[in-house]
Amino acid sequence: DAGVIQSPRHEVTEMGQEVTLRCKPISGHDYLFWYRQTMMRGLELLIYFNNNVPIDDSGMPEDRFSAKMPNASFSTLKIQPSEPRDSAVYFCASSLDNRGNYGYTFGSGTRLTVV
Amino acid sequence: EDQVTQSPEALRLQEGESSSLNCSYTVSGLRGLFWYRQDPGKGPEFLFTLYSAGEEKEKERLKATLTKKESFLHITAPKPEDSATYLCAVGNYGGATNKLIFGTGTLLAVQP
């Protein structure tokens, strides 16, 4: 398996533009997580899905953020409109369960810069 | 409020110089203490899960231990390839959701 695949690796956009981040989880993993990492706050959980259904989106900062999982092999995180404070590394992770018993497998992340 | 604190923020060791990283936590419903390794430009890589006080797990030069309030990651005779950021996370399974809460990590640099 190629692991969790995220695209793009880097994204630079202007304030106010729409940004879409993409993730392909490991086949057979029922849980998918979106995290954001910054120097100040570390890794923060934004939202997670179980069998394509959003379970907890309490970490989504505000209505500008939305996430979808239309099928078991694809998820998107969208920011519209983007703001400079959204600049961070966004990670997608997948797991066989959501208690970390088997460990979460993280992708390599998308580094987002909003100017 | 649930919280995970790691110390030190950064640690520089000489090759072969053993040391320990600390992770202290306060969480209402602990269901596991997790250690991850993160290399620059990559996502975190799972190392260990500990579930109860007194439990220990080892992997090569790394050994993780757990008490009721903190966990230690002991690094014995480290090599330069052990240089990375080490992240600690706790599983909080209270309420209707289950999530991992991460600390901000310890940046370890091992010099040859």
Task: Estimate the helix proportion of chain A, in percent.
Answer: under 10%
The poorly predicted ranges of chain B are none
Oligomeric state of the chains present here = heterodimer
| Proportion of residues in extended strands of chain B | over 45%
Overall mean confidence score, pLDDT of chain A: 93
* Helix percentage range of chain B: under 10%
| Uncertain ranges of chain A | none
Largest pleated sheet of chain A: 7 strands, mixed
Summarize the biggest pleated sheet of chain B: 6 strands, mixed
* Average residue pLDDT of chain B: 91
Describe the overall structure:
The complex is a heterodimer of chains A (about 120) and B (about 110). Chain A has no helices and 11 strands. Helices cover about 0% and strands about 55% of the residues of chain A. Chain A has about 120 residues and is mainly β. Chain A starts with a strand and ends with a strand. Chain B is globular, with a radius of gyration of 14 Å. The N and C termini of chain B lie far apart (about 40 Å). The interface between A and B is medium-sized, with 24 and 24 residues.
Briefly summarize what is shown.
Chain A has 115 residues and is mainly β. Chain A has no helices and 11 strands.
Key descriptive features of the protein:
heterodimer; A: about 120 residues; mainly beta; seven-stranded mixed beta sheet; four-stranded antiparallel beta sheet; about 55% strand; globular; B: about 110 residues; six-stranded mixed beta sheet; five-stranded antiparallel beta sheet; 11 strands
Compile the SSE list and pairings:
The complex is a heterodimer of chains A (115) and B (112).
Chain A: E1 5-7, E2 10-13, E3 19-24, E4 31-38, E5 42-50, E6 53-56, E7 65-71, E8 74-79, E9 88-95, E10 105-106, E11 110-114
Parallel strand pairs in A: 2-11
Antiparallel strand pairs in A: 1-3, 3-8, 4-5, 4-9, 5-6, 7-8, 9-10, 9-11
Chain B: E1 3-7, E2 10-14, E3 19-26, E4 30-38, E5 45-50, E6 56-59, E7 62-66, E8 70-75, E9 84-92, E10 99-102, E11 106-111
Parallel strand pairs in B: 2-11
Antiparallel strand pairs in B: 1-3, 3-8, 4-5, 4-9, 6-7, 7-8, 9-10, 9-11
